[in-house]
Design brief:
The chain has about 100 residues and is α+β, with helices and mostly antiparallel strands. Helix content is about 35%, strand content about 30%.
Length: about 100
Amino acid sequence: MFATIRRYESIDQGRAGDLVKQADETLLPSLCELPGFNGYSLIETGKGVMTSISFFDTAEHADESTRVAADWVREQKLETALPNPPKITSGEVVVHKTGELVQV
């Protein structure tokens, strides 16, 4: 399994809520349809920073998710909400364990 972490900085705080809604409604469905999809999380870390983590079967699948995310920013015209390109870290997951998630 491979993971890609994208750290978005200097996010327009006035558009953060809209960004989260659009990610949930339009980006996530696109990622879910990609081959090898295993999961996606968007984390609001505060102070104009959001981080996403996606999991895919192969490095190629993970790389495709990065292309899809970049296209999504352009298609949704989010360049002003996300003024800086994300810092991307990607690699093979060498230790992984999940428990049951409880949604509140």
